[in-house]
Amino acid sequence: MLNKIQITAILLWGIFSVNFLSFPVLGITTDAKKTLSFDTSIAEDATPEVLEKVMNSPEVEEIFFEPGTYHFYPDKGLEMFCRISNHNDVFVATAFPLLDRKNITIDGQGATFIFHGKMIPFIVENSKNIQLKNLTIDWYMPFHSEGLIVANDEEKGTFDMQISTDFPYEIRDNQLIFVKEYYEHTIGQSILYDRSRKAIMFDTESYTPVTTSKKGGEQYSLDSIRYRYKVDERAPGLRDIGMESRIWVEQLEPGLVRVHNHGKKMPPVGMVMAMKGEQGENRLAPAIRVVDSKDFQLSQVTVHHAGGMGLIVENTENIRIDHMVVSPSGDRVVSTTADATHFVGCRGEIHISESLFEGQLDDAANIHGTYQEVVERIDAHRLGVRMGHYQQQGFKIGRPGDKIGFVRLSESFFPFHELTLQDTEVLNGRYQILTFRESLPENIAAGDLLENIDAYPAVIIENCKIQGNRARGLLLSTPRSVKVLNNYFHTEMEAILVPVESGHWFEAGSARDLLIEGNTFENCVHSGQNRGVIRFITDDDEEHTAFEKIRIIGNTFRQFDPMILEVNNVDGFLFKANTIEYSDAFPSLFPDNPVVKINASKDLNFTDNTYKGKAKKMIVNTNQNQNIKFD
Amino acid sequence: MLNKIQITAILLWGIFSVNFLSFPVLGITTDAKKTLSFDTSIAEDATPEVLEKVMNSPEVEEIFFEPGTYHFYPDKGLEMFCRISNHNDVFVATAFPLLDRKNITIDGQGATFIFHGKMIPFIVENSKNIQLKNLTIDWYMPFHSEGLIVANDEEKGTFDMQISTDFPYEIRDNQLIFVKEYYEHTIGQSILYDRSRKAIMFDTESYTPVTTSKKGGEQYSLDSIRYRYKVDERAPGLRDIGMESRIWVEQLEPGLVRVHNHGKKMPPVGMVMAMKGEQGENRLAPAIRVVDSKDFQLSQVTVHHAGGMGLIVENTENIRIDHMVVSPSGDRVVSTTADATHFVGCRGEIHISESLFEGQLDDAANIHGTYQEVVERIDAHRLGVRMGHYQQQGFKIGRPGDKIGFVRLSESFFPFHELTLQDTEVLNGRYQILTFRESLPENIAAGDLLENIDAYPAVIIENCKIQGNRARGLLLSTPRSVKVLNNYFHTEMEAILVPVESGHWFEAGSARDLLIEGNTFENCVHSGQNRGVIRFITDDDEEHTAFEKIRIIGNTFRQFDPMILEVNNVDGFLFKANTIEYSDAFPSLFPDNPVVKINASKDLNFTDNTYKGKAKKMIVNTNQNQNIKFD
């Protein structure tokens, strides 16, 4: 049955088209084997028709949608189990399974796709030359919830939230549970948003996250449980052990909820609390998932929301993104509940341009490899390896022929040995057997880390705007050429974080050829954390070099706080022709910081810069083996 | 490194064998391509070696184990996602994936396999002529927990449990959480066990289950969530909505826990409370899973425990079980946490003999088909169908060529139309598209049920002992020849339940040729429920025939309560040469019941029976259209 909007649309279309087009009546017009067209007669639930045609049209190269709004429900979707890096392992439905396909363009022609529940709008696996363009992705009910702070009482330790009917909830055992279509979440991870700035609130770390849990509760005989092998106490299933609820809530009137016993400062009236449920459970429905593919392109794609990342790409070669928009729809303050874009184990080139990333609850782009850990030597050519993080389960480190580097971070951030991958056998989420072409050398030992030296991309990120999000702008961990050009940053944490990290996220890779040029950084790191706008950091106390050939040229920094740079473990650093200005947007949080903090670094060059800020000192260099001057 | 026990075993073996056997030193002896032998040098964690050899020996036909105790850990096991009927959809590890194999015998030679955590010991898929024999399956830590009732206070509504160190726990937000290897569970489903009788406690329904939850908690805007399609409000994810905890617990001293606010009678001192966590979450690790196979045999297999069923068989032809033992190990009162054996959509013959089923938390054997529900007609040959129960997700109703019957239970329990299955397309757990060879007739409508007429087995169950378990002895739903011969029953609910059921479990099939002969039924239905020892029942109020050709001959009933038979919707019933005796084992719960209750049935014949009981009346026939005499 057609509804009124559809009938109007068809009538309007009829006026303009009836004389020169055949009239589509069944919702699907197949012009030729290579083209599929969908119109809005399927809009009430487009899933079954789109799914059937996509699955049964192996030769199709172009898929068009008539402009309009299409709903996609999971009930008749193709269910897939996906292990996705930096997400939960998920069971989700999709209407667009692009599996083992090539040369397909999906052109929304401006259409909006509204998803319902646990779905991944686009799944691209083992495919080549896939392009998505001119379409908008949103969810009918988001995977996060929002509450307006309307009162607080610092003495009693309570704050009150007004919650709109867009975010249905119930109070269960004195805890706030937001109920969605086919989903529910607790307060879990939370942060404050300032509507007046369209951004995360200044100094939110003093107020959030809501301190939902605490250690507590009697335990009996738990020490009798002994695991034979390493277990991840941070993973769901183990991390709740020994923890109890700290906060409790009461409903004052329908839609008005009081939160008791929060342990930080009470959230200020007028701010919006964004809540997304427990870590490890709240990344379940990214908007676009690409894995094991080549030549993937996004153009003019808007992602208003996702229960996870906007785009997550793994083990893929060449990704091109232009005019992507990640931004909340309607009254919502949050867009995607995790990173706008994220790339793991990719190669070739990642090119992101002319895009807007705002309101997402994590980084705009995070690009890295994956460390795996040696468990044991099985025979002369085989190693048992372990995935370190629970959101890397099942990740394949590479393809046959890839060079795998063995790293012992206590000795060096660079590999001490390289071998050629022959085969990966994924026995379970945590454990794989890797076979190498060469014999294993004697000195590879349990605890050593592996990284894929061939699976790092060159990167260009240019003319993008990154603002109003939680966390970083860019997180860059690749030794290939990286160029960050002419972008704008207004981020809650570091604008650009360049890490080597092995203890928690197991995200491999370090910068060895990084150019940051022509960008504007405005009042970044306003979270309340004491960090540089651009920050090079390792998570070990090692003194050896992690980063090389870093150039930061011709950028403008406009900051309320003195510190611009944190430079650790860098060999070869040029900071040239940058302008640093003072901003009174926020009160200074760390006025005693220098502009530049340096540690364990050498060959640093600061030249031709213009300083208009208020710092009391320019450079603090912990290892005073070099005389560095800021000019 | 060998431990002391292994060294002793090897030395002992050496004494007897060194002169005429080659000495196995690597844990695995491959005598020939067709034989694999494992010895106890791999016993500390047998998973990696067993898995590698099983997977990489496609021609093997015999797998032997040296007698001894072998531990199997999940960490290096093959992880599989399994949708298993009447279980959770599970991710589990296994060391024995028998996938697409044939002619394999695994002979434990008396070995004991101890599993750790979420594993399925044996997974048999799409295989032919597989036999398991002479082995024992147990878990190091069980998936259930037990507490001895040491005190209660009817006035305050509390009872106290003493919990041994075998069942580690913690108290989290005032709730009791039992912590296991890689798993935890709440009190959830619970029942009382009487150690003095090695059986479920008499009249446990008055005391259990522990009333853990209640309706409650404020809700806001939940009515704005509207599902487009049918949803299952009993499924995990939806059923918690609107529910809160009712009970709370406190630790009086380590290992001693007081439970407050239980809503039934307080459990008596001296009984053991068996607890297994929430329904829908506690069937995750059956001992043996068989699906889509032919000619499966179990011989001399003991299952001491499983977190689910002992044996679950789906869509398989010919199953033979002899000398199976399902019985708890050590001090435990519970064996498997669900049925001892369970068969769904099987065909050919199921033959169970000389077996003992005791202490399991559900039926000894449940044999049935599966109803699926018509969602919509897609085209002339295709139907969209829905799986009714969340533990039937992904179940394939049959193979190409199978006869599918369409049933409208309000009109008849027998199909009104039959079609030939051509293809099943499983789009997701709940929704499939079925293609039929013939055109769909006009009268098939949404809501009609489908059953596979070809996928019902003939059954023989003989010389078995079923005792001390929760729930039924046998649950029989197949129209083929069923013979229940010379068994002993001491069950908490019905000894034999013959249902037609469509509203909750969607378990299809009805008896049409059932012989129950030479069995002894002793004090069954002591749960506190008002039911017959043998019970024919439909879950609708329909009057038409569901069951035919029922013969109950030469059995002995020894019961504390009058009622022996409940006969509903039967056409053709012979009750002959049975002896009914009185037992004073328990006080009578329903002394006013007749011996036989009859409704909507015809052609009934009671003859040559001997009655030595205390009933006040013999037969109550609701439809007095027949003059039935008990003699």
TrEMBL record, chains A, B:
It catalyses: Hydrolysis of terminal, non-reducing alpha-D-galactose residues in alpha-D-galactosides, including galactose oligosaccharides, galactomannans and galactolipids; Hydrolysis of terminal, non-reducing branched (1->3)-alpha-D-galactosidic residues, producing free D-galactose. Pfam families: Beta-barrel_GLAA-B_I, Beta-barrel_GLAA-B_II. Keywords: Glycosidase, Hydrolase, Repeat, Signal. Residues 145-272, 382-450 form the GLAA-B beta-barrel domain. SUPFAM superfamilies: Pectin lyase-like. Gene3D superfamilies: Single-stranded right-handed beta-helix, Pectin lyase-like. GO terms for molecular function: alpha-galactosidase activity. It comes from the Bacteria. InterPro entries: Beta-barrel_GLAA-B_I, Beta-barrel_GLAA-B_II, Pectin_lyas_fold, Pectin_lyase_fold/virulence. This is Alpha-1,3-galactosidase B. It comes from Echinicola pacifica.
